[in-house]
């Protein structure tokens, strides 16, 4: 039998072991809690990293066809979003081509005579031809710079001795100067054909055998800007009176710094202006949007809705590009939304620009259901696709602006008009890289505005520029037949 001392020792030993077990259990519980917390943190970090990878992959896949990025930013070739027509390249069957036709009154006639018979050697100089074959060659005449001397008479009246003198034309201001047509050529080739000054100088010397320095050409372009600038008010007034106004902006570098070119335009008029700011300060300074009270077409940029006096419309070309990006990320709802928008566009075109109220409401109900399902699907995804969800919520919130084209004939489906009018800004930037001064950018914008307006009115750009640089106004040029 155990003695009392042995029993006590046994009990104490058991108690010690129990305490050790308790400490071990407590330690294991703490370690388990720590591991649980660590696993939770790792899962959270893993979700964040997955979202970040997804975001970076989407960013690397962005180009002009699936985002707001301009085509000039594409690093590699991207396929056009336009669907194949199935037609062969070149003129289509039934197309009326244009070709040269002989004119009744040519500028020059060259007669190739038959003077002798190659058979017997007899003279045929006095023999009348029984047939004349006619061929006409269309070509450029030799070009050269002409010097016109302007002489102003000064007379003294024999009766009152008052001295009278004739007036020189408004563009004749110096004893020796270049004329408005050469100035128009410099403006046209530099701002419209985007030829840099050095190449422009070389071109004029090669074509006209006359050397003009790059500094002189820059001064010509500057004088051209001064002659054209007053016509911008005419364009501005026409835009303010229009039912629909397309607005947009794109980046541009001036003296190596980021700046912006803003456009306000219609199918008939174009107004471009450069500014250091992209937002409301720029559009306020330019001055058109604060006074416009019609329907303003634009993308989802936050500046434009701040002009509450205008009615607003969202561009679906932007939406289709964004949806294409979401489709590439595997969002099936985006494919259905794309089909919906294109079908709605086609339905409006079939109904000559606007649907009946009943039809419009039917399309609205489909629109609401599709976005509601897309939102529900996105909210259940892990990680949460924030950009896609923000896109869907934007279409829900701004439903009236997105679907206004269903009911109003003057409202287009997209803002392609503004994008087309901005395109040459990016081409210019690709060629020149940057404008050296703000005034050069302003000169470019003014000239492109005038030329774009002339083109929209189907006016000959060269002839019209010559008229404007000799003092005619844009209203006068546009009204001529």
UniProtKB/TrEMBL annotation:
Keyword list, A-Z: Cell cycle, Cell division
Domain of life: Bacteria
DUF6444 domain ranges (all copies): 33-99
Lineage: Bacteria, Bacillati, Bacillota, Bacilli, Bacillales
Name of this protein: Transposase/FtsZ-binding cell division protein ZapB
Domain called Transposase IS66 central: residue spans: 175-442
Organism of origin: Anoxybacillus tengchongensis
InterPro entries: DUF6444 (IPR045618), Transposase-related (IPR052344), Transposase_IS66_central (IPR004291), Znf_dom_IS66 (IPR024474)
Keyword Cell division on entry: yes
Gene Ontology biological-process annotations: cell division
The UniProt record lists the keyword Transmembrane helix: no
Annotated stretches, region: Disordered: 57-98
Domain Transposase IS66 zinc-finger binding: 116-160
């Amino acid at each position: 039998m155990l003695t009392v001392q042995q029993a006590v020792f046994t009990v104490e030993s058991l108690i010690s072991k129990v305490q050790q077990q308790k400490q071990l259990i407590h330690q294991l519980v703490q370690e388990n809690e720590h591991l649980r917390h660590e696993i939770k943190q790792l899962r959270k970090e893993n979700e964040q990293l997955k979202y970040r990878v997804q975001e970076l992959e989407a960013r690397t896949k962005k180009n002009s066809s699936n985002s707001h990025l301009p085509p000039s930013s594409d690093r590699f070739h991207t396929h056009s979003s336009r669907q194949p027509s199935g037609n062969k390249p070149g003129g289509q069957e039934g197309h009326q081509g244009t070709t040269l036709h002989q004119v009744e009154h040519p500028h020059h006639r060259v007669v190739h005579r038959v003077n002798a018979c190659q058979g017997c050697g007899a003279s045929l100089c006095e023999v009348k031809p029984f047939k004349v074959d006619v061929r006409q060659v269309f070509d450029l005449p030799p070009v050269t710079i002409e010097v016109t001397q302007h002489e102003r008479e000064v007379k003294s009246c024999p009766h009152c001795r008052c001295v009278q003198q004739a007036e020189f034309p408004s563009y004749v201001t110096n004893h020796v100067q270049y004329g408005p047509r050469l100035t128009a050529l410099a403006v046209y080739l530099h701002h419209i054909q985007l030829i840099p000054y050095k190449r422009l100088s070389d071109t004029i010397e090669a074509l006209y055998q006359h050397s003009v320095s790059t500094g002189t050409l820059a001064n010509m372009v500057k004088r051209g800007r001064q002659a054209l600038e007053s016509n911008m008010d005419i364009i501005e007034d026409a835009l303010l009176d229009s039912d629909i106004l397309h607005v947009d902006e794109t980046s541009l570098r001036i003296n190596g710094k980021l700046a912006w070119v803003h456009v306000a335009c219609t199918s008939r008029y174009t107004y471009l202006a450069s500014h250091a700011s992209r937002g409301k300060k720029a559009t306020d300074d330019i001055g058109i949007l604060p006074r416009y009270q019609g329907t303003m077409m634009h993308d989802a940029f936050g500046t434009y809705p701040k002009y509450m006096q205008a009615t607003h419309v969202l561009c679906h070309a932007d939406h289709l590009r964004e949806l294409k990006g979401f489709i590439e990320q595997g969002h099936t709802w985006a494919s259905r939304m794309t089909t919906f928008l294109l079908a709605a566009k086609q339905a409006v075109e079939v109904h000559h620009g606007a649907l009946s109220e009943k039809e419009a409401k039917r399309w609205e109900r489909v629109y609401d259901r599709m976005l509601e399902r897309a939102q529900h699907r996105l909210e259940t995804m892990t990680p949460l696709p924030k950009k896609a969800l923000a896109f869907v919520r934007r279409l829900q919130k701004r439903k009236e602006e997105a679907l206004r084209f269903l009911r109003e004939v003057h409202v287009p489906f997209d803002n392609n008009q503004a994008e087309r009018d901005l395109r040459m800004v990016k081409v210019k930037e690709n060629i020149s890289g940057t404008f050296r001064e703000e005034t050069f950018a302003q000169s470019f914008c003014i000239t492109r505005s005038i030329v774009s307006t002339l083109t929209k009115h189907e006016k000959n750009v060269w002839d019209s520029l010559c008229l404007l640089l000799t003092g005619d106004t844009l209203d006068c040029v546009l009204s001529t037949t």
